[in-house]
Amino acid sequence: MSKVYQTTHVGKVRKNNEDALIFIEPETFAVADGMGGQAAGEVASQMLIDITKNFLSAVPEPWSEDILKKAILKSNAAILREARNNPNYRGMGTTATILHIYNRRAYYAHVGDSRLYRLKNKILEQMTQDHSYVENLVRRGEITAEAARVHPMKNILTQAVGAVENVSVDTASFSVEIGDIFLLCTDGLTNMVEDKKIAEILLTSENPAEKLVQAALDNGGLDNISVIVIEVDSL
Ligand code: CA
User: 59 C-alpha to center of ligand 1: Å?
Assistant: First the structure.
């Protein structure tokens, strides 16, 4: 079992919170960051969460990365259909980062620029890669990671759930040890707070989720902020 801390905050600027998150006990977690006008972003992220939850509840555990990927593909088809049928929802989409921990193993599936991090032996590692325009620039060596964080085209995604028929889902699995800390979060955290500060909070704070959100708010809180922290204290 693990200690789980989760919170979502609208931020200081936006009127709506288009993020959604789930914690399916005991060890499954997801964040989704919706996009699209007129509250459509909220619809897309909530659809991802609801469809994922329903899909997984009908499948026996462990939910391998392929099963998590299927949940995202099912959501993709449904969001795309809804966006086509309802003009108010045209162009909506969402990120999706889902983590399942079972029997000393972690499985994830991921689309977009929400992130999964792992803190192990005091070192913070980003496990997912952002599907974003600026991430491609970083990978090609055209800009630095630091420049990417404040780049004006930071918000342009190269992949989103519900945007196209053939969404490509990143998946992986790896072993888990006692003491590992996982963080799932939306870009409302990572655009506002540097990795170094995130690691410091995860290592020192009694309520890391609240502290991370506070740090994002202190730095401007320009976007919705969602955070799930999982401290693995037994397996
Ligand atoms: Ca966001």
Answer: 30
Cα(157) to centroid of ligand 1, in Å? 11
Task: Output the CATH code of domain 2-232.
Answer: 3.60.40.10
pLDDT tens digits for range 47-68 = 999 999 999 999 999 999 999 9
Residue 177 pLDDT class (50, 70, 90 cuts): very high
Q: pLDDT tier at 148 (50, 70, 90 boundaries)?
A: confident
Cα-to-centroid distance, 119 and ligand 1 (Å): 22
Q: How far is the CA of 154 from the centre of ligand 1 (A)?
A: 11
* 191 residue type, one letter: N
Q: What pLDDT is attached to residue 36?
A: 87
